[in-house]
Amino acid sequence: MSSVWMIRADGGALIDTFLMKGVVSIKWDVGDLTSLSKKDEIADRLKVVYPEASPLTLSIWTGVVYRFRSEIEIHDHVVTYDPSTRTYHLGEISTDYYFDAVDDPVWPHTRKVNWLHQVSRDALSLSTKNSLGATLTLFKLGESASAELLAVAAGQQQPQLEEQLEGVSETDLLEETLNRSREFVKDRMAKLTWQQMQELVAGLLRAMGYKTRVSPQGSDRGRDIVASPDGFGLEQPRIVVEVKHRKHSSTAPDLRSFLGGRHKDDKGLYVSTGGFTQEARYEADRSAIPLALMDLDDLVSAVFDHYEEMDVDTRSLLPMVRLYWPT
User: Fold this and answer.
1) Helix or strand (DSSP H, E) at 104
2) Using CA atoms, how far apart are residues 190 and 193, in angstroms rounded to an integer?
């Protein structure tokens, strides 16, 4: 079986680029690495470009860049994750490493990919979800996770293989644990009802220092929550919030409908657990009023930042415990 590599799309921000261009890429401003095939050569280049980076950071970066440059082979499989739709995209590497600073100067280290399959996170076992949860930009999947992912993509029964974990450092385990917790929280959030999701967002805003009014179920005239310092929406900033808890992405017409009823002094927050189309994000950038978009990944980050300040009712929607890790 060919190797299967996870390559992250900058938290999902590069998913459209990866899929439309048929590529995977990584950043690091170290120039063309075509002539540098050895790990120590790459390490030396990184030290020169990033002299203030710690030895541990340089070691991690060297491993990632070296694997992308030299260890990945043509016909290996590659998987990347779209957190807004909770979908894994699976493809096959079709070229060796090449440097493309013209087409993408920020993410120039590139390999071509034939994208073949999409696999829902819900279709995978808990063990494989755990394996795919590492926050590292690039890593090689174990045999069990690789076999299951390929089998599910092909519509076959999931094989039962013993998972192997080799060469995992304490830092790697911490990174994996943090990202697993993030994905498990997203799994739990996805199971909330629309009313519960609305209450969670309102509770988050209260934890951030606002007072909120939540629209009753039914016609909400284009808003679900109004947050303001006084709780009545009379004092600024007045934030009008729309909450869409669904699997499909919110579109540009959705945002235009929301923006159509806003006052010139309003601030907008549009929460969509199904993510946003690229056109919707362009629409938000052109908005006449300040408008923030929040997908499921953004919502988890905000909840993590303010969970300690949330009231009891809001925490009951998403019970969590604090995890301590040695440093």
Assistant:
1) none
2) 8
pLDDT tens, 224-242?
899 998 877 677 888 999 9
Whether 222 has a pLDDT exceeding 60, the answer reads: no
Question: What is the full DSSP assignment across 111-179?
Answer: EEEEEEEEEEGGGS-HHHHHHTT--SSEEEPPHHHHHHHHHHHTTPPPP-------S--HHHHHHHHHH
Please state, in angstroms and rounded to a whole number, the distance separating the CA atoms of residues 198 and 196.
5
pLDDT of residue 163: 43
Burial class (CB in 10 A: 0-12, 13-18, 19+), 166: exposed
| Prediction pTM value | 0.58
Cα 139 to the chain's mean position, in Å?
A: 16
**Cα 295–Cα 300–Cα 306 angle in degrees, nearest 5:** 125
d(CA 139, CA 133): 11
